Amino acid sequence: MGTFLAPVFEPGFFDSSAVNVALVVGAVVAMVSAPVGVFTVIRGQSFAGHAFSDVSTTGGSGAFLVGVNPIWGFVVMGLAATSAMEMIGVQRARSRDVATGIVLGGALGLSALFLYLDATSSSTTGASITVLFGSIFVIDHSTAVITALCALAVLATIVPIYRMLLLSSLDSDIAASRGVPVRLVGVCYLAATSLAVALSAITIGAILSTALLIGPAATALRLTRRPGAAIVTAGLVGIGATWLGILLAYDSFYWPPAGRGWPVSFFVVVLIFVFYLISGAHRPRRRPEPMTPGVPGGV
Amino acid sequence: MNLTEPPVPNEPAIAPEPAEPRARVVAGADVAPASPRLASEEVLAVKDVTVRFGGREVLNGVTFTLRSGEVTGLIGPNGSGKTTLLRVILGLQATASGSVALAGGARDRRHPVIGYVPQKFLLDPDLPLRARDVVALGLDGHRIGVPLPSKQRERRVDEVLLAVGAESVARSRVGTLSGGEQQRVLIAHAIISRPKLLLLDEPLANLDIGSAHEVVSLLATVAREFDIAVFISAHEMNTLLPVMDRVVYIANGSAVSGTTDEVIRGEVLSALYGQHVDVVRLHGRVLVLPVTGVTAGGSTHDVNVLPEAN
User: Fold this and answer.
1) Mean pLDDT per 10-residue interval, chain A, length 299 residues
2) Which residues of A touch B141 (CB under 8 A)?
3) For residue B105, what are the CA distances in angstroms to B49, B111, B112?
4) Do strands B254-258 and B246-251 pair parallel, antiparallel, or not at all (unpaired)?
5) What ipTM was predicted for this assembly?
6) Residue A86 to residues A42, A81, A240, B243: CA-CA distances in angstroms?
7) Structural domain for A94, as ranges
8) Would you call A42 an interface residue with chain B, using a CB distance cutoff of 8 Å?
9) Both B142 and B262 in a single domain?
10) Parallel, antiparallel, or unpaired for β B56-67 and B97-102?
11) Which CATH number fits the domain that encloses residue A182?
């Protein structure tokens, strides 16, 4: 098999511990992003998801500045942004976008300062690149452990509220009348999203983390009719794109310009986009009727 | 112990029946019911409910009761406070004064007393929920955790989908269904947990007349067969007339209730609106005509809609 697949897997692919760590961490992040991403698309909160990626940039660059592991910056800033958005108001769709926009704007301003200071004060210029475009091939032991813990935290948040989140996404008044704590459920979902985005920021970079959150979920929603199936499909699409992206990035070391690999995040994002386009060829069986406009804010 | 005792008397949780002659007319005196029903039980007692939004009174001393097995229409022009009243009953809207008493006592998450179909419910075609998934959420959507496969659950979903005539669309994405089909699915969602009260906010607003009649007769069947008190808000009452046991007519935040014949009368509605109103019965249809609201080109299909008198 080794010789048969030699042209695909360049020498040393499976021997490199960096590659092995990348494959495992990438899979974990893709799996965790799937349920969060599916709910993000269902609830029409892609904008909030994107805001978290900008907020992660702030956190990561700030963490670099004070000399701690960037993942702490991603996580802490994400949770801080969750609280800020909740306080400004994420309950109604309109004030939700305003809250998101204000938090996003503030975060980008701080990012500009932090990235500038990172670039000018630190001797290495890698900080900005690492924060913005990820560092999946240089994940150290402690980062891998923190990633695993965050992944568990996301699942521990989403699994208990799964049905209540579905019901309140269907209609918040129905959910409230059934005794669902709609607001608390919404905040838990936002916190889980911020953590999932922080994890994506580690693998494909803060600026691209929305792609891993939204892309596989949007692809899965084109292919499936049920929430459970959508989550599984989104997970598989995410893992597929991440693993294939890692492989291509590894192989690209031999592509022109020789001796310099292409970034993993580029491949992952392009693959997700390609998967999404391909999924458009297959639409679930649809009845001919609907003149029904979609729910506002639906993606 | 005394479980067979009729629940109405000596029940402090339920507001005492107001000595209102209109509401006490013997059932069946003028309209013969299709079949003798079980003794219908008082499910909801709304008493003197007042709601203010920023000083403005949206509801003012609204009082009525709903009984199991009966269809009651909540009729009134747009903006008269129908949705607010439904939200009060659901516990989603605080009241300035008054009481809402539900049979069976306080709201219970495990045995919900109220099923609810909200207004203008058109779902996104991309929502990854089949019709049967939506119905199943009516059973356990408020619970913690991920649903486990359950034969019993599937069977109950099938039964309810059959009861509302939506079994053929069970496996379709709910957002791809027509307006009438979505209403059926949402009614199934609302009644699968066997509530005592079913509230529907303008369920006929977006339907063509054929679908509207189908949904109305379905709701009448649901009320009888499941012994549920069905409360339907509408700005146009004629579609509901054939099945309506009672009506709560609301205008300018005040309401009168009773049978259609008692309430839909010129002097009663004139007092409610605070201006002269004519009620015309024409070929089995009821037209509510305000003196000041009819213009030369005014068509009769929307004459229920009176201008807002503020």
Assistant:
1) 61 79 91 94 84 85 83 87 77 71 85 80 66 78 88 95 92 88 90 90 81 92 90 96 91 76 87 92 53 39
2) 163-164, 166-167, 170, 175, 178, 180
3) 18, 11, 11
4) antiparallel
5) 0.78
6) 19, 8, 34, 46
7) 24-210
8) yes
9) no
10) unpaired
11) 1.10.3470.10
